[in-house]
Amino acid sequence: MPAATSTGAPSPTPKCPPTPALPAGVLFSDDFASRQAAECNDLDFTSDEAVDRTWSANKYIISIKKTQFLGWDGPSNEYDNFGAETQAQMVDGNYAEYGLVFRASGAEGALSYYLFAITTDGEYYLFKKIAGKWADPDPISAVSSSSVKPGAALNTIGVIAQDGAISLYINRVLVRTFVDSAPLGKGYVALVAATGDNDRTSVAFSRLTVLTPDKAKTDWGGASVPAGQPEIVSLEFPSEILGDGNKNDGLVRFRDAGGDIARISFDPAFIQPKGFNYQPFGFEFTNPAVRWVEGNAASTSGAFRFSNGCTGDSLVVTVAATLYDKAGNKSAPYLFTFLCKSITANSLTVFFTVKNGSPTGFVIDKQGVKHAAPAYLTISDLHIAPGDRVVLQTDQPRFSLMLDCGTSPQTFTPCDFVADTPAALPGWIVKNAGGTAYLNISRADNWAGARPGFPSQRYPADPVLRIGLGD
């Protein structure tokens, strides 16, 4: 893992012509046709003792001059959900690691970002840095892939990031999808090169393109699938279902050149909040009860239905569907997410988490409507009547929380309390009478001053997610 990093510093801004309109679905594009255009796109061309950044015809070149070092740079635009792709190859040295940094944010020395890279000896990896420290374990440690063209060959590297789902592409082949239970938020995309255990390397990047996720899937969807591997082309399932255990229908469309699909599995990939039991399921295509819409198990393409249900209290569930053939080949996992809505009468669910040091979350009201935290971190206008209850859920092991009932402590039970771990949270909060209370939530150990009149309580310090529980 690289021990040190150099990011580009801004170059003097040249006189830039008007930016031409981009096609629909294209958020950024630069083929490095000129140095001026690259500089106008905020690419850096400075050098220091560890990294040189230079331009040649249709190439942006990052040269590293230090062992266990990485250098990167990119445009200043920030993206949350997107697809990014670059083409690159090693042009000097015996070894290189190169690819994309994305969702990068934070101050120098405390940066957070993902790093997706391939190596010239045929491996790829996904690393994650949080506030200047590498995550342990790695999201995806270095693993060999036949999709990587080794040595000095030209490779196309792409990533699609949608909330916590990160899909990795090498030469337009989906090699892995990783679901991060604590995903990084909005940030910028950059080109990156690293030396590993070598003392120098140079990598030339031919282009950088950033697309909407849908545009990336459309453009990259025609990528060839490794020989013999079945493919899930699409999957349809409701985005919200009731948590009453009843089954809901979904539809899978597939391709399989061998015409010998054998079974499909559906495995939980990510559940909010953690700790709830969601059982994997699947079926064999020898089962005569399979509901075919098009084709059958001996077809090279077709469609079939499946059923899925859930039992829970406002769970957000991401499931990975994987198709297998008789030879044991399997498809890339296809991820889909749905909300398992609460069926408990007179119950609201508050889910909160912490991303990049800042609290966020959502509330599912009694009608099953989701209220997400806006940019200013205040969720209000939630109607709670006497007899209603509020269930608190989180995926964080530690946090700072206070329920403030003001001067009417009889309004809720329990009321006027603080908590810093899930074990300290009540099973639920019940509203007894008319009035308003406020949940104030922040990251772990982030307390402000003492609450007047309540010696054992402190207010969480900014940034605070504030949820109003009123009439």
**Low-pLDDT stretches:** none
Helical amount: under 10%
Helix count from the secondary structure assignment: 2
CATH superfamily label of the largest domain: Exo-inulinase, domain 1
Distance between the termini: 53 Å
- CATH topology of the largest domain, by name, is Jelly Rolls
> Major sheet, described briefly?
9 strands, mixed
Could you report the average pLDDT, rounded to the nearest whole number?
86
Strand content: over 45%
| Overall geometric form | globular
The total tally of domains equals 3
Strand tally: 39
Q: Tell me what the CATH architecture of the largest domain is.
A: Sandwich
Could you say which structural class the secondary elements and strand pairing correspond to?
A: mainly beta
CATH class of the largest domain equals: Mainly Beta
Spell out the key features of this protein.
eight-stranded antiparallel sheet, globular, 3 domains, nine-stranded mixed sheet, Immunoglobulin-like, Jelly Rolls, 2 helices, mainly beta, 471 residues
Secondary structure: elements and pairs:
Elements lengths: L3 E4 L18 E5 L4 H6 L10 E6 L2 E6 L4 E5 L4 E2 L2 E11 L4 E9 L6 E8 L3 E8 L2 E2 L5 E5 L10 E8 L2 E6 L2 E7 L7 E8 L6 E11 L1 H8 L10 E6 L3 E3 L5 E8 L5 E12 L8 E4 L6 E4 L6 E8 L6 E11 L8 E8 L5 E9 L2 E7 L5 E3 L5 E6 L5 E6 L5 E5 L7 E2 L3 E3 L9 E3 L5 E6 L4 E5 L2 E7 L4 E6 L1
Parallel strand pairs: 1-5, 19-26, 27-31, 30-39
Antiparallel strand pairs: 2-17, 3-4, 4-17, 5-16, 6-16, 7-13, 7-17, 8-9, 8-16, 9-10, 10-11, 10-12, 13-14, 14-15, 18-20, 20-24, 21-22, 21-25, 23-24, 25-26, 27-28, 28-29, 31-35, 32-34, 32-36, 33-35, 36-39, 37-38
